Fold these 4 entries.
Entry 1:
Amino acid sequence: MSYSGKCMCGAVKVEVEGEPIAMMVCHCNVCRSWSASPVNGATLFKPSQFKIIEGENFLNSFSLTEGHDRKWCNKCGGHLFTDHTNTYGVIDVYGSILENFSFKPSAHLNYENTILPINDGLPKFKDFPEDFGGSGTLLTE
């Protein structure tokens, strides 16, 4: 199964093959600031599952911290993905841009920073799971 995605104006098109490694909701200050929303839906794919189909010349990037290369379309400003290949070995294609994709998160990240408490029964990590370099500490809903 493959999923296509695009920026708001359609100048940049991406495709992912197969299912994501993980889907999570991030509540950190950086993701909230970048997405201009109370949470960010992280949909993590291996780099081999991801490709830019069209409009690579319209991509701009910004890295607040090394290894977190955020990409957006310079025509419409639409955010597309964050390249984490140098830090976590994954690409976070924003689940909201993928057509016919069902976003089903397995956990919440950086929940200690939440401004939108969500009572959905999913694990709420204070920061990150241990296998992502975090403390693995869980918080209550």
Note: Residues 47 and 90 are 6 Å apart (CA to CA).
Entry 2:
Amino acid sequence: VRFYEGCDGLKTGFTEEAGFCLVATAKRAGVRLIAVVMNAPTAAARSAEITKLFSYGFARLRAHVLYKAGEVVGKLPVVLGERPEVPVVTAQELSVVVERDAATLPQKKLVLPEKVKSPVAKGAVLGRAVALLDGREYAHVDLVAGCAVPRSGFFQTFFKILGGAFRVLFKRI
């Protein structure tokens, strides 16, 4: 089993009552499998059964990636920030393991506020990206600020307000 492609963990054992036992893990293309064999007659049979279980699982399942790690999924307005917006980024990959021939795939949903208040630290959690399966939450990852947005200073804020007032005034004229 240790030579099985993707096998990265295992625990073997033997007792008279339980026979040859093995718990093993393997990962391929974003799919992690855990296989357990108990009461095998020999160590070789134990390894052969784990190999069959892994081969069966990897043949039937695949990872469906909804968002990649670090993917920019949008921007949020920042109240009183030096920048008007902050990029919203996935903190890690969001994927769901599905059958290879699945008729329906997971849906994705972003849960975010309408705006954030400054200051915003880079990496601050702003919301969640959610994987939905049959309308129910299946998995989620944090959505974080892609950069820092410091609070704007008094004069910067004053000139933003003044500039906004002039824009409104001149639009009416």
Note: Helices lie at 43-60, 154-172.
Entry 3:
Amino acid sequence: GTFMMGSKEDEADEDEQPIHEVTVSDFYMGRYPVTNEEYARFIKATDHEEPEYWGDRKFNQPKQPVVGISWHDAKTFAKWAGLQLPSEAQWEYAARSGGQDQKYAGGNDLEQFAWYYSNSGDRTHTVGTKAPNGLGIYDMSGNVREWCEDVYDEDAYSKHEPDNPLITLGGVVRVLRGGSWFGYGRLCRSAARNWDH
């Protein structure tokens, strides 16, 4: 599908502009974030290192999203599972229910779709307990930030190709999207960009 990627000027951070038309080819997106239960199967099968918060019961219930994993951990898990991380454009297209003009993943009512700083009780929650977006995908806004394939570039939107854009050069910092249980509501917006090492 084709959609307008980025954010309106009155709410956007500089790295969310310019708004630009992007087309993404068909792809699959998981209905829920990867859970601790799923990640535990990966650890057992591969003897991979446990995540940073694995021993904290507040973050390690079977159906909660796994937290404390690096981009490299996410890539290794995806390869093991026969999957791949989404590009930033794929992530935003999916979050916007197939490219619709939605402030959050599913609509404009943050409370309906997301666990975030003001309502999370300082912890993650069982996946799928908030409303799904228009594609039936849960927790793309809030609960846990999600790694994308892209290298973070503040000026990515002025460099994007119109079809299937992906930034692969320029650093070791990677894109995170979606906001989380410990982030403010504005970070849960469909267009909000974040990054980490």
Note: The first strand starts at residue 2 and ends at 5.
Entry 4:
Amino acid sequence: MVGSIIKSKGQLDVLKALSNLNVKYRNKVQLDILGSGNKRYIKRLNQFIEKNNLENINLLGYQKDISSKLKNYDVAIMASRGEAFGRVTVEYMANGLVVIGNEAGANPEIIRDNETGLIYERNNINSLTKKLIYVIEHPEKANKLSVAGQDEVYAKFTTNINAKNVYNEYIELIK
């Protein structure tokens, strides 16, 4: 997970979903949270991690050159309760990660569930847990999702495509 560490980004929801996993699955998961944020919320996350013996979780703080770091991961979680566009979701997909996204904000517009990534039900920890288990149990399908997600990004969200879309909208407005 990359971004500001604040309640609205949903990091605690992800920790709760991971705590729902049985040991068999939990041992297959490492979660790195990259970013800085609210010190009280970070303390709360650390307390939850300790209380629930979530050993494979690292709060790494602010990081430079995120794109190079994303190449070290297979899955990204977008648990934010609302994003206007979802730039980080697109960045995850562009870097070939399987994205598990909350059905809030722009995620449902960017991710086609079970085609270019996975969408879990808003504010539903059990739904997120099920998506995590699915990715663990189906690595071939996860690989197909990551490839399809990457293809989708390069077909719809490149700088040139966005510039052209903005230009066309502008032309329509001045007609």
Note: The mean pLDDT is 93.
